[in-house]
Amino acid sequence: MISIAANVTETAEQAAHKARDVGDRARYFASAMLAGAYIGIGEVLLLVAVSPFAAGHSPAVRLLEGAVFPVALTIVMFAGAQLFTSNVMVMLVGALSGRTGLRHLAVSWGLSLAGNLAGTLVFGAMVHASGVTSSGPARAMLAEMLHGKEALGGGQRRGLR
C-alpha cells in the first residue's frame, strides 16, 4: 500500500508534468475539450443503455448506471485528457508542495474548465442534431435528471439522479 507521503509526491510529479503540458495552451485546451466530450459520451451511453430499464421501473437501474458511466472516466484516463476535476486536485497539490506555481495552477484550471465546457457544448449540439437521445425513455430519463438537478439548492449537491 502506498503511504500518504508517497501519494502526495506522486501527485506533485503529475502536477509538474501538467505544468509542462500547459506550455502548449492550444493543445491543452483541445485535450480539455476532448475530456468534456468523453464525459458527454458517458452520459449519452448512460441515457441510451439505461433509460429502457428506468422506463420499466427496473430495480437494476442504479446498478446499471454505476456500471455504464465509469466508461467515460476510463476513456478520459486512457486518452490522458485534461478533466477539470482532476486538475483541481493535482495542480493544487503541486502548488502547495512547491513543485509548480500559482500561475500554472490558474492556467491549468482556466484552460481545463473552459475546454471541458466547450467540449460538452459541441458534443451536446452534435448529439442533439443526431437525435440519438430522442426516444421516449431517453427523453424522460434526461428530463428527470434535469429536474432533479434544478430542484437542488446551493451547497453540496447530492442525489443527482
Question: How do the helices and strands line up, and which of them pair or pack?
Answer:
Elements lengths: L3 H18 L3 H31 L5 H8 L1 H10 L4 H14 L4 H29 L5 H16 L10
InterPro entries: Aquaporin-like, For/NO2_transpt
Protein name: Transporter
Subcellular location: Membrane
Explain this structure:
It is built from 7 helices and no strands. The protein has helices at 4-21, 25-55, 61-68, 70-79, 84-97, 102-130, 136-151. With 161 residues, it is mainly alpha-helical. The protein is 78% helix and 0% strand. The model has no long low-confidence stretch (mean pLDDT 91). Helix 2 packs antiparallel against helix 3, helix 2 (25-55) packs across helix 7 (136-151) and helix 5 runs antiparallel to helix 6. It has a single domain (4-133), classed as Glycerol uptake facilitator protein, CATH 1.20.1080.
Shape designation: elongated
Overall average residue pLDDT: 91
Protein structure class: mainly alpha
**Helix share bin:** over 70%
Strand/helix succession? HHHHHHH
CATH class: Mainly Alpha
CATH superfamily: Glycerol uptake facilitator protein
Count the strands? 0
Strand content: under 5%
Distance between the termini: 34 Å
What is the number of helices? Answer: 7
The number of distinct structural domains comes to: 1
Q: How big is the Rg?
A: 18 Å
Low-confidence parts: none
Subcellular location: Membrane
Keywords: Membrane, Transmembrane, Transmembrane helix
InterPro entries: Aquaporin-like, For/NO2_transpt
Main location: membrane
